[in-house]
Amino acid sequence: MWYAIIGHDRPGTLELRKASRTAHLERLQSLKLDGKLLLAGPFPAIDSEDPGAAGFTGSLILAEFDSLVAARAWADADPYLAAGVYERVDVRPFRKVLP
After folding, report:
1. Model confidence pLDDT, tens digit, residues 56-72
2. Which of 26, 89, 92, 93 counts the most CB atoms within 10 A of its CB?
3. Spatial distance between the Cα atoms of 40 and 22, rounded to a whole number of angstroms
4. Rounded to two decimals, what is the model's pTM?
């Protein structure tokens, strides 16, 4: 089943985000290589592709896992959470309808 993983950034953590980005992306690449990643990306804090110093307010990952427990465990091991970028992470089942 698909799951939406929504990370909510703590304010003022842009530098922590930058420092943890490589490890965060490596985990996403692993999901992609396994054919389990639908999409992933950050929420810019302002209406811009490159928000610069404004940074981001969080991230969205849509990925396939065997269960909600497995999705939650994967989300709980995210480098952004370990580094203190995310103040919380929501994990919800997701049903893809379109396209």
Report:
1. 999 999 999 999 999 99
2. 89
3. 14
4. 0.95
Based on its alpha-carbon atoms, the radius of gyration of the chain, rounded to whole angstroms, reads 13
Beta bridge partners of 61: 5, 40
Tokens of 13: 């953590």
- Whole-number pLDDT of residue 16: 97
Contact 7, 17 (CB under 8 A): no
Surface-to-core class of residue 20, CB atoms within 10 Å of its CB (0-12 exposed, 13-18 middle, 19+ buried): buried
Which tokens is 28 given? 């996403």
- Which residues are CB-neighbours of 30 under 8 A, at least 6 positions away? none
Q: Of 5, 4, 20, 25, nearest to 85 (Cα)?
A: 20
- Measured between alpha carbons, how far is residue 67 from residues 1, 3, 32, 64, 73 in Å? 7, 9, 18, 9, 10
